[in-house]
Structures are given as structure tokens and as C-alpha cells.
Automatic annotation (TrEMBL):
It is a multi-pass membrane protein. This is Membrane protein PTM1. It comes from the Eukaryota. Residues 55-169 form the PTM1-like N-terminal domain. Belongs to the LU7TM family.
Amino acid sequence: MTRRWVVCVTALLLVFPMIQAYVVQIKDTYAMRQTCSGVRAGTDSRVDVVFYPNSTGTVTTLVYEFQDIGIIGKVAPDGSQDKLFMCTPEAVQDKLCTDKDLGLYLIDKPNLSGTSIQQQRIDFGASLTNQTILSHKVNTTGFYCVSVEPYGSNMAMSEAFRGHVDFVNSFHGQLPASEHPKLYFYGWLTLTYLAMAIAWLMLCFKYKDQIVTVQHFITGTMVLLTIEMACEWAYYSYFNAHAIDYLHFRSISGQASVTGMARFWLLLTNILEPARESLSFFLLLIVAMGYGVVRPTIGSVINKVYLLTALHFICGAMYSVGVTLVLLDIASEWVAFFIFPLAFTLTAFYMWILSSLKATTRYLSERRQTFKCAMFQRLNSILIGSVAFVSLYLLGMILYVSLVGPNDFLYQSWKYRWFLLDGILSLLYFVAFALIAWTWRPTGNNMRLAMSDELATDEETPGAEYEIHAIGQDDLDRDALEVDPNHLHQLSQAQNDTGVPPEYNEFTSDGRIELKDDKHHHDIEDDEFDVVFEADHDMSRRSYDTDQKNDHEVQRLRLHEEDL
């Protein structure tokens, strides 16, 4: 088994450097006999038009850089402003070309120097016996197009051809120049997810006794993301190593094994994507519900979450597979039926996540759970930031395409279109997931955080609720130990400052300490301080306020009792 793998890897390494062209099939029966692709200029960069044996008749090939499309074709003399693109007998009569140009493309420029336009006419005769290659050198990086047009007195009978176009780039591989950066992008993204997963697993191992349920789901999501990115890289790596017809996803050379593997990777990546989306929505929903942080369980609601997740995955997978079948020309009519269920499950997830997050945040805010509330507010900020970014991104894309036009968009953006359509959203997902994982990362306090509530400290806030931990008969409250000596000292000092022995002071019915001979004087509060302590038996909190009156003639110490 090991020997077989060594042979396979060696064969791949030997073949890989020889593969360096993006291949597109051409055929006389195709409605569109033109193909375009970006080409990165290099020493051997070129565009080859290859015709297979048994091709017949006469054909003309035209290779040009997209910016020169404006000079291809001439306006008809009848004033219709319609362009004629081929030199035909009618065009000769209109003096748009000469007899020697019959079958060639019309170029609205007498001298082609300084342009990228190259055209050739080839006559196959009754039948082409050997494979013929028409090569066109590429000196400048650009977006190049190839048009192949048959010409003859009876095109349906005499002109028949099959072949392919090789876009030979400066890099080695069969991927289009516009798609080739994805090979490196998903490779680095796989390594990044792998590094994050390793760091996460190390934290899980370090705090294995503190892991809560939601962190297990984060671990599963992280593993799935790493696998998905690895499969995306494998998909582009396989397509880079083999000549694949992207219109039908089959081998150019007709190898059944290559066709089968190409379609396997296509289906696998299209199934992993809805799996990742479903698991991500599931994770967001249970986190928004406070699972593992606010409450240890969400009861029977988890079954509804499981059901919605399964439905979303099924609808997403069927839609993705349906799109794949459309690409393979197998089926297309029934794919639209999966758009509406997918939109329904997606909307249900969005609404449920937002409502749950709002309810959890409000619950924590009312109970004065500031630390936990900050976690969910951070999650809310991450989601709002992501939605805002996607909205601005879509708006920017719509404006960009509408301003430059669809055709010019393909021509102008081919170098970075992969980043606009795939890279930005993939990076956004990575950043959002990394921030959520960091917020819910394993620590030494996870179980304590999940199983306990904070002690509220803001007593004057309406609706505040306080929790007092049960203290045994022989236990002392830590807060009482810290506060009691200071309170006693302040109480004694306040009493001594009155200048009257303690026996002349008394407690009033409202809890004040007054001088016995000055009970009816008006109180003027110039300064006050609060003293908080806990009684030994009733565990109540009291605050003492000291009032100063007219040159310290009368001072009062107020005692307010608040039962918790």
C-alpha cells in the first residue's frame, strides 16, 4: 500500500510541472464559439488554438485583448449603426473589405500594429489528418478572448471542427488565471483554521474539567471548518492538475477517472458548504439562548433547534446539488423548488437568533449580571458588525457593476474578482467565528460562570436583585470581614464628634441617632457617607450617613436599613 502511494505521488510530481494551460473546448455545434480568460504574461505565455483530426472546411481564428474589442467589426453603410463582423460577399459589395479578406474578421483600423489583434485563416480541406495548433504569443498581461468562425458556401455541410483553446500562463497549472489565486488562498486559510483548532484544543485540554456543552459544539464547528477549507484547497488543486472542461465538468482527454474525481470534488464541496452554514446557525442560536452560560439546559427547545438545523441542511444540500446538476446539464427545472424552503429556514434562523439574543441580554441586564451581559453584548456587536459589513459589501458590488457594466466588470476585475466574490466573505466569516470562539474560549472559570450568578452592587438602580450566599453557623462573610472594622470606627468617630457622651444620644423611630437636647432642629445635609455592613443574625445591609449642622453644632448619623 505504501509503495503504491509513493508511485502515485512520484507520478504526480513528474506530470505537474508539464501542465501549464487553462483549457476550453470548442466545437462547431456550440452556439457560442468564443471564450475569454485572463492571461498572466511570462516567457512562454501564449494562446494556442488546437484543432483535432477530422475537422473539415475553412475556419478563421481571432485572438485579441478585451480592450481592443471596440475596433472589431465595421458599421453597416445602411445607417442602422449595426456592426458587421465577418467579411462576406455582401460586405465586399458594401466596400467594407476586399475579396482577399473573405472569411476574415472586419477590423476598423487599417494598421494593426500597436494592437493585440491576431487572426488566422486555415483550410482543413476534406478532412484534417493531423492535429493543428495555431499559436499566438502573449507579451502583456490581460484579458484575452478567442473567437473561431467557420466560413464556406455551405457551412452546415462542409464546415465541422472540434478542438480546444489553451491559455498558457506564467504559472504552472490548468486553473484559469482568475481562479488560480484561490489555490493559495484556501491553502493558507486551511492552515489558519488548523492553527486555531490546535490552539482551541490545547485550551480544552488545559481546562478539561471546566468545559461546558456549548464549547463542545464550537469544537465540532471548528473541525468541520478545517475539513471544509482543506476540501476547497483539494478541489482547486485537483482542477489545477487536470484539464477539465468547466462547462460540463469532464476531462478534456475523455478519461473517465478524471471526470469522476472532478465531479466528486464538486459535489463534496457543495455539500460541505450547507453543512458549515447549518452548524454555524445552530451554534449561534444556542449561544444566543444562553446555553451553557445563562442556563445549563434549554429543555425541549433543543429538539426544535435540531429540527430546524436538519431542515436547513437538507434544503441547502439539495439546492447546492441541484446547481451542480445544472452545471452538468443533467437537470434544471426542479432546482427552483429548493430556493423557497431554503429562504424560509434561513429567515427562521435569523429571526430566532435575534429574538433570543435580545431576550437573553434583557434578562441578564435586569438581573445585573454585568459580566455575562457584556459577553452577549459583544456577540451582538459581532453580528451587527457582520451584517453591516455584508450590507455595505453588497451595495458596493451593485454600484460597481452598474457603473462599469457587466462586460467591463468581467474584463476589469479578472485579477481580483476571486477576492471580491469569495475571498472577502470567507475572511469575514473567519474573523466573526474567531471573535465568537475567543469570547467563549475555555478558561478556568467556565463552570463557575455557568453555575453561578454575580452579586449585584448597584443598590439604587430600580429593579435590582441581589443574591446572598448561604453562610453556615461558623462561617464569616468575606465582605463583613473587610468592611466591619471600618464601619465600627466610623460609627464611633461620628458619635465622639458630637461632643456629647453616648448616654445623651438616642435612636429615633426612623433610625437616626440624635442629640437628646436637639431633636427638633432642622437638618441641613452638607456631607454624608455610607457605611455598609452585615449583621450577624439577619444579614441585612445598613448605611450610615453623617450630617453636619452649622459649625458642627449638631451632627446626626442616619441609619437606613434595606432588607435584601
